[in-house]
Amino acid sequence: MSRSDAIAKIETYFDDGGFIADLTRRVAIPTESQNPERMSVLYSYLTDEMQPLFEKMGYRCQILENPREGAGPFLLAERHEGDDLPTVLTYGHGDVVLGYDDQWREGLSPWTLTQEGDRLYGRGTADNKGQHTINIAALQTVLETRGSLGFNSKLLIETGEETSSPGLKQLCEENKELFAADVLICSDGPRLSPQRPTIFLGARGAYNFELDVDLREGGHHSGNWGGLLSNPGVILAHAIASITSATGELYIPEWRPPSIPDSVRNAVHNLVIDGGENAPEIDPDWGEPGLTGAEKVFAWNSFEVLAFKTGNPENPVNAIPPRATATCQVRFTVGVDPEEFIPALRRHLGARGFGMVQATPAKKGYMMATRLDPDNAWVQWAVASIQSTTGKEPAVLPSLGGSLPNDVFADVLGMPTVWVPHSYASCSQHAPNEHMLAPVAREGLQLMTGLFWDLGETPPVWRTAA
């Protein structure tokens, strides 16, 4: 049996409805990790849906309790074929965000997979059940076709990614040997465009914080006191405006990357961002001057105001409000220290007369930025494999624009990380009407089967993980 036989087999799995059947079953399990009443459902997804499949594939499975109290469990499955073979860790998450059942359009439900044309609707289709279903099916197909994988495989499924992966880092820090591997190959996030296979090698970090101007008790009549009392909304608006130009260029030096490495710039120089149907129109003049759109998203930092409130927006009254607050965020890449964000911001605001503006980091902490060098041998190997399968040159993104717990794998476990996404930017991830594109899913099955076949036949130079 050959590589082409394996790819033909996975095509049949999709064309004859096997993929739809597996995903339908998994979407129907309401694994809302943001809902504390779903803890038993999170366990069920691992023990009733995932574990029997992995054991059938010859994996040894164990449920790992979360070291963080009240957080969801993990499933680790391992298939060891030889001490002289490379080991790949494949990661996915079985949890989803809240279903928002009543907000889906008529005829759709978050817990029922519904196909309309090329769209597969349902909560988790894009994030992440559809994506890890593709990768598991590809592994199973290689195993059935060749009789072995030709490498050692570890599968980690967590159930808390949508609540910022509580306990994942601690679990890996305390069990490094258990998760040791030569490379991480997994899937999450969107492609650069629906038509173009994509590889990303890390993720931008996300640092959230609050800005607050609290001047006095209660509001005061704007006629009697207007012109006499300082307005916290105006102060906060000007404070925020001092952070960037009117077009989003960062003014705080500590928030700016020192440079873009040549290998990163070369990887993204010809990339065109295409979110697919219903994607918003890009504002070409927004962000850092002199950078391409791809460089702005995949190799630079950005500041965002996520929410701003002063007074009573739902029912405004003629009063000077006592307080104004804003929730803000820095998306950052490798090369800056997030621990310096708030101290640098306080110095910046103080120097401009905004000492009354309080800056407080978000309680849930932040996600670190990671980036594998695009010249890494694992990257070049993956590019060649995907191109061989699809006939397309995959886009190589040094970092995903969004954030993932990739630092756990790259920094804590010390392995190269190769992500191959099977979604697209306009999938309504985290929103009502979430969906996956059927053509992307089919191509994802093909290219992942080819990738895992090649890993068992012609892997790049690798070292045994310590």
Question: Which terms summarize this structure?
Answer:
six-stranded mixed β-sheet, 2 domains, single chain, 19 strands, globular, 32% helix, four-stranded antiparallel β-sheet, Alpha-Beta Plaits, 466 residues, Aminopeptidase, alpha+beta
What can you tell me about this protein's structure?
This protein is of the alpha+beta class and 466 residues long. It is built from 14 helices and 19 strands. The strands form 6 sheets. It has a 6-stranded mixed β-sheet, with helices on both faces. A 4-stranded antiparallel β-sheet has the order 12-14-10-15, with helices on one face. β4 and β5 form a beta hairpin. α1 packs antiparallel against α14, α2 crosses α4 and α4 packs across α14. The two termini are 34 Å apart.
> How do the strands line up in the largest sheet?
1-2-6-3-7-18
* Cα Rg: 24 Å
State the secondary-structure class. alpha+beta
Oligomer state of the chains in this structure? single chain
What's the CATH architecture name of the largest domain? Answer: 3-Layer(aba) Sandwich
Q: Could you tell me the number of beta strands?
A: 19
What's the tally of helices?
A: 14
Give the termini separation.
Answer: 34 Å
Write the CATH fold name of the largest domain: Aminopeptidase
Which shape, going by the Cα principal axes?
globular
CATH class wording of the largest domain = Alpha Beta
